[in-house]
Amino acid sequence: MSLYPFARRAAAGAALVALTLAAPSAFAADLVVSAAASLTNAFKQLGEQFERAHPDTKVVLNFGASDVLMQQIVKGAPADVFASADQSAMDKADTEKVVQAATRKDFAANAIVLIVPHDSKLNIAAPKDLTRADIKRVTYGNPSSVPVGRYTKGALEAQGLWSAVEAKGVPAQNVRQALDYVARGEVDAGFVFATDAAVMPEKVKVATRVPTTTPVTYPIAVTTQSKQAPQANAFVQYVLSPEGQATLAKYGFQKP
Signal peptide span per the entry (predicted)? Predict the structure, then answer.
C-alpha cells in the first residue's frame, strides 16, 4: 500500500493547521491605550464600542496616573495611544518626543470636587473646613505625579489653604486610590474628579465643587512608537466623534 496519499493528506492538514494558527496575527491587531485612571469606566465602554466597529482590532487598556503612564511610554512600554488627565503630563510626553504632536487633541473636560464618606457627620462644606482641628486626614493625588493632585494643589494655594491641608495629607498614587480611601472611611475627606465621585454615590458624597486655577482638560495623542498607527488614529477620532463624546458625557465628562 502506498503511503503517498496519506503523506499528502497529512501535509495538507498540517498546512491548514498552520494557516489557522497564523490567522489571528495576520488579521487582528492589539491596540494598547494608556489612559488616566479617571477614564477607567468611560474608556472600557469606548474600547468595547470601538472593537464592535473594528472587529479586526483588540483594544488593550492600561490605566494609571498620567505621569506614571507617560514614564512607562518613555521607557519603552508598549502603547499606541496616550490619554492624559491634564496638559502637563502630555506636555512632558511631547517634550520626550513619545507622542505625535500633530495628533494631539483635547477630548474631555472635568471638575475637581471635595468629597467625604457618605455617612460622615463632620459637616465639611468647603476646603477651609479642612483646617479645623477635628479634621485629621485628607487625601489627594500626589501632585508630583498625579493630575488631580496638581489641580488640587493649585486650587488650595489660590485660597491660601495648601500648607494646612498638606500637613494632614494622605497622598494617593492615582485618583481612584484617593476615591477608595474616602469610600472606605480611612480619611475624613478627599479631592477627586467629579466623574470619580459619581462612580460611588452610595459610598461618598460631594461636599462642594472646587474652582481650579487652570481648566481641567484631557488631551489624547498617538504615540511615536505605535506600530498600529492607522488603528491608533482611528481610535482617537472615535473618541472625538459624536458617539464617543456621547459615551464620555454618559460618565459625566464635559466637552473640552
Answer: 1-28
Q: State how far the alpha carbon of 105 is from the alpha carbons of 110, 112, 117, 123, 221, in Å.
A: 15, 21, 35, 40, 7
Dist CA 204 CA 175 (whole Å):
14
Reference 49, options 248, 221, 255, 254; nearest CA is 248
Look up residue 163 and give its three cell numbers: 500648607
Give the residue numbers of the binding site for molybdate: 38, 66, 175
- Annotated binding residues, written as ranges, equal 38, 66, 175
Domains defined along the chain, listed by start:
28-109+217-251 (3.40.190.10), 112-209 (3.40.190.10)
Cα angle, residue 253 at apex, residues 192 and 30 outer, rounded to 5° = 95
Quick one: what percent of the chain has pLDDT higher than 70?
89
